[in-house]
Write a structure and sequence with these properties.
- The protein is 36% helix and 13% strand.
- The chain is an alpha/beta fold and 416 residues long.
- The protein has a 10-stranded mixed sheet.
- Helix 4 links the parallel strand 3 and strand 4.
- Helix 9 crosses helix 13.
- 35% of the residues are buried.
Length: 416
């Protein structure tokens, strides 16, 4: 049996009903399969994949992505679940996770997702003005309200879901607005993923998040989260750091000591090393021609693993190495640049770890003692030590960290 691994299945390749500016996958059909007008995973590929994956390990999470995976149609996913039930072994843990832009969800979809206990990730980049900067449909129209309507349908039907926010040049400066927008609307699970795409000359595309923006964003979010929401809201990046403190290893592949265990299955059965490296160079083979477990013993995959295992020189003496391990190879500059390469987001991560690790270590210690870790301010600050209006403007953010204006928070308490 191979080591535990994950598969991200792409039943429609890169096809999508949206035309997000920063998407790295919608060009894959034209790059890899130009002869296929509308790629769709056949029943032969679906059945072979399901059978082989379930035979490979005792716990299997079927991950479905795109493009927009809902374009495969509800019948496709009904068939997928049917095959899982057919081939699963007694006692075997089988789960499904699906990432969607949310705009195609309706009651019928949500009833199915709820009945089959899918975990659904919805891609929303913040409030409408931030989301709609880069996430528009093929007619150039805004998509936020359609995506949010899909999210509300998931909530209505009791589907477990989280929100994925891609950090780009437009929304990264607005950490507080984004965080409060979601948390104040009852979203308890958040992921923030920085965007880095390259121009033809290898330089970051102008919509990419900068290292400075990432560091500031994470710190601003951390201040809000640790002040009022620790123990109530899950932020995947913070969860990962706490996991590393407690168990000595990361829960996310990009921060792990090694990767090469999260692969991509394309619509036609092709298996690639990683979602961020779906290029001919990293094609492991086709599971209709070679058993999946044999593909994962490929020399190509071992070569791919070295992109992570062979650390950049600058990482070797870094005090935060155990929390980052060089980060995702996709973010290395230059890509495939040898020992002199560096993670593009390095300075952002270093800034975050330098300021936030002491507090995160305290939280981890409390978890280890089976204690709840309350927010830092569980009651209003003592009015006697809150700055007066002579020191802070009435419309400035309140220093207690509530996210409200001073006049509506601690300032109101003083003057009442």
């Amino acid at each position: 049996m191979p080591q535990p691994f994950n598969i991200m299945a792409k039943p429609v390749c890169g096809e999508c009903n949206l035309d997000c500016t920063y998407c790295y996958y919608t060009d894959k059909r034209g790059e890899l399969y130009p002869e296929v007008a509308h790629p769709r995973m056949s029943d032969e590929v679906l059945e072979s994949y399901t059978k082989q994956y379930l035979q490979s390990q005792s716990q299997c999470v079927f991950g479905w992505q795109g493009g927009e995976p809902l374009l495969a149609g509800l019948e496709f996913f009904q068939r997928a679940v049917e095959l899982q039930k057919q081939y699963r072994r007694p006692g075997q843990v089988v789960e499904n996770a699906l990432q969607t832009n949310g705009t195609l969800l309706n009651d019928e979809w949500c009833r199915f997702l709820a009945a089959e206990k899918f975990l659904v990730g919805v891609s929303i980049d913040g409030p409408p003005r931030l989301h709609d900067t880069y996430r528009r449909d093929r007619a150039g129209k805004a998509t936020f309200h359609r995506a949010w309507a899909g999210l509300e349908l998931l909530r209505k039907h009791g589907v477990e879901f989280n929100v994925l926010v891609t950090l780009n040049r437009a929304n990264a400066p607005h950490a507080g607005d984004i965080y409060r927008y979601f948390v104040n609307r009852g979203i308890g699970y958040l992921q923030f993923i920085p965007i880095l795409e390259r121009n033809s000359d290898g330089a970051p595309a102008d919509f990419s998040c900068t290292p400075e923006q990432l560091g500031r964003f994470l710190l601003d979010i951390f201040e809000l989260w640790s002040t009022r929401d620790a123990g109530k809201v899950s932020v995947r990046f913070f969860d990962n750091v706490i996991h590393t403190i407690l168990y000595g290893r990361a829960s996310q592949c990009c921060f792990s000591r090694s990767c090469a265990n999260a692969h991509v299955l394309e619509f036609n059965g092709d298996v690639y090393a990683c979602d961020h490296f779906v290029y001919p160079r990293w094609l492991l083979g086709n599971l209709l021609e070679t058993p999946l477990v044999e593909l994962l013993e490929s020399g190509i995959l071992k070569e791919f693993a070295e992109l992570k295992n062979d650390l950049p020189t600058v990482c070797e003496d870094c005090e935060y190495l155990s929390f980052c391990h060089g980060g995702c190879p996709k973010h290395h500059m230059p890509l495939y640049g040898g020992p002199e390469r560096v993670n593009y987001f390095c300075e952002g991560y270093r800034r975050f770890f330098a300021e936030a690790l002491p507090e995160l270590r305290k939280i981890a210690e409390q978890i280890q003692r089976d204690q709840m870790f309350p927010a830092k301010h569980t009651s209003p600050p003592n009015p006697a030590i809150v700055p007066t209006e002579n020191h802070i403007g009435r419309n400035d953010p309140c220093p207690c960290g509530s996210g409200r204006k001073y006049k509506h928070c601690c300032g109101r308490k003083i003057v009442s």
